[in-house]
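Hi, here's the filled form for the chain we discussed.

Project: internal
Contact: R.S.
Residues: 460
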Amino acid sequence: MAVTSPVPSHPPSLPAHHDADTDQVVRSGLLHELSHAFGGPFHFLLPSRFDANLAAFGAVLEETGVEGRVHYAKKANKAAVWTERCAQHRAGIDVASVGELREALGGGVRGEHIVVTGPAKSADLLRLAVHQSCLIAVDSLDELDLLATLAFTGTVRPARTLLRCLPPDQPHSRFGLDPEALETALDRCVRAGDTVRMEGFSFHLSGYASQPRTDLAGRLVEMCLRARRLGLQADRISIGGGFAVDYAAAEHWQAFLDQQRPEHYHANKTFRAGDFYPYHSPVAGAEALRAIVTAVPEGGARPLAELLKETGTLLMVEPGRALLDRAGATVFGVQGVKHRNGYCVVTADGTSLSLSEQWFNSEYLPDPLLVTAQGVPDPGRTHPAAVGGASCLESDMLTWRKVPLPALPRIGDLLVYLNTAGYQMDSNESSFHDLPLPPKVVIDRLAGRPRWRLDRRPVC
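And the returned structure, exactly as it came back:
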């Protein structure tokens, strides 16, 4: 009896959430003009979305009665426009290098609204931070000693500090002070007198669960009370970032996880489902902050918000990706199309270094949008397509998955990767092959024909 080969299943789709502002830019015809003008890939940014996300975090703090401050985690995107928006709204910024600190100051953000994080900070970074009255999250005893020395010898201003704690539930993290080092740090802060102003504690947790953040925040409030009894200011805590972004609907995300398998990827590439970012999150962005402050810390009797108010403790948060939700997209031109068995391989006019999820041995999963000269094709028969970069590397794949597109891609069409402002655009960018870095286009006006300008940060 003849053996019949199984019919390959259709590759699953993962459509991104609908976004009216992005749709308006796509419909305007501007993208093909910009692709022609730049001769390669580019990103477009929507500062109005950033403003709305920032306002949503502020609204949660106000509605729950929490005195707090939002600091944009600058590492999430290098564009200068976000610094401009923070300065406009008197929001803070979280930086981790001399370059980021200078950019924040140059963009109009006041030093006292800047938090300096990161491990083993250089003397140059610490010196500049002290001179500008930035708040420095101290990650080690060596760093605390260097900071105290710099503050004593170089300025009449005290070194404003937070002590970063090693999370008890993540003991293998390379960041933070363990309990023994924390005790030593508190003692040194007391003995430093006016040289070091210890303003509180901070932590950063991996993952996106809210209750562990509530629990650890509750512990830090108790630590603040103890530090105050030692004569230290200790009136604030920072719970870092880790506010999830919801990219896709629950049913689409679950269907994708249930259906995807190696045959749906170019070269039968395999990914572990656990390595994917959780592209659907039922509690995301500012609502994740609400969940944190309205929950009761482990061993407590009242919500974190009430504990913060009762103890006069300010709450600091450092969202990055969550402030950039739907605030930008990445556009590649189709440079070539190669047909394979049952699908095609598209070559884009850029590289996967502009979609940084590959850095994590993963894939940026929301479906790219195909835009032809006539616009977005109507849904109909699907045409599976993997997307490769313009480099000579087999591994340079923007999308290993055979994405079901509504039309067969052609040279000159565009692929728009949606919602890429958070980490995807530039965390891993490189001018490999001497290809220029994709420029960033700021869309300042959406009404009528979009009005655009280049982000003022120079592209090197």
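Let me know if anything looks off before we file it.
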